[in-house]
Amino acid sequence: MKYKLAIFDLDGTLLDTLEDLKASVNFALAEYGLPTRSYAEIRRIVGHGIRNLVDNAVPEGTAQDVADLVFEAFKAHYKVHCADKTAPYPGILELLRDVHAAGICVGVISNKADGAVQELMRTYFAGLVDVARGEIAGIPRKPAPDGVLAMIKAFGIDLADAVYIGDSEVDVETAHNAGLDHIIVTWGFRDRPQLEQCGARVFADSPAEVFRLL
Fold it and tell me: Over the stretch 31-89, which tens digit does the pLDDT of each residue have?
């Protein structure tokens, strides 16, 4: 195999989480009498962390104290409902099993809150992911390379032996900032023309294609 470590993004790459994110955002908005958001709107603004998601979901000009309350309501709702409709994309479980069988280590780096990441790992990927990390205080979130580089160091693997796999412009930037090869999947939260404009060059249209690129 070409690589020793495959680091995956979570939302939009391994898991289709959009319906649950939309439900929690809209629950929190409705709690404070604010207009809710469509699936397309949530798809467009997701990917930069949950605080950014909420800040972009509230109407422009919303007072900061109200945005803070919406954020807290979102977190409380999502903690309970993060797996209501969420599921791995077709072929993902098989991909992770094949990657492990090929002797490649598997990591996950997400801008989602770490508690939610760990819950989703237990629910969907038990035994299939070696290390997963969500957003943790003190570690800059993607596209900063800090979390990715720390994970590579922990595995004791050279940069040339690792690849970053994601679905958004955040993931393209993360791979670039870390000095890593990238594989960008086309089934996630962004469209291919947008990703090409952001500098993505290596694409996979299916989990089987991801494995072939590894």
Answer: 999 999 999 999 999 878 889 999 999 999 999 999 999 999 999 999 899 889 999 99
Say how far apart CA 165 and CA 163 lie, in whole Å: 7
Examine the pLDDT at 112 and tell me if it is beyond 90: no
pLDDT tens digit sequence for 128-145: 999 999 988 899 999 999
Q: What are phi and psi of 183, to 5 degrees?
A: -130, 120
Pairing label, strands 87-88, 15-16: antiparallel
Domains of the chain (ranges; CATH) run: 5-16+86-213 (3.40.50.1000), 18-81 (1.10.150.240)
List 9, 20, 161, 181, catalytic entry = 9
Strand ordering across the sheet containing 105-113: 131-135, 105-113, 5-8, 162-166, 181-185, 203-204
For 57, the enclosing helix (H) or strand (E) is helix 50-57
Query: What whole-number distance in Å separates Cα of residue 98 and Cα of residue 146?
Result: 28
Q: How many CB atoms lie within 10 A of CB 160?
A: 12
CA atoms within 13 A on the CB side of 103: 5
User: Can you give the pTM of this predicted structure?
Assistant: 0.91
Q: Kindly state the tokens that stand for 203.
A: 């694409």
Q: Is 68 an active-site residue?
A: no
